[in-house]
Amino acid sequence: MINVILYTKEKCGLCDEVKAELAQLAHPYPHRLTEVDITQDHDLFARYRYLIPVVEIGDARLMAPINPDQLRATLAAAVSAAAP
Description:
This protein has helices at residues 13-24, 42-48, 68-82; strands at residues 2-8, 31-37, 54-57, 60-63. By secondary structure, it is an alpha+beta fold. The chain has one domain (2-82): Glutaredoxin, CATH 3.40.30.
């Protein structure tokens, strides 16, 4: 199973959309989602406040706007790379 990190904050509509898409993709591309609230860390807030949602999947980093096809392709590549 791969790890996915979603950098987000409250009241972020784009973040909610990406989170919902990740939930739909959990069956075909099993992953463990960790949400990180950027408002709880000064450095993360400074780095990502204008870029969220930001998704890290392995070595890949996706920044807004993130489309479903891009997210699916990145998950597929990570799952494939993690397969024995």
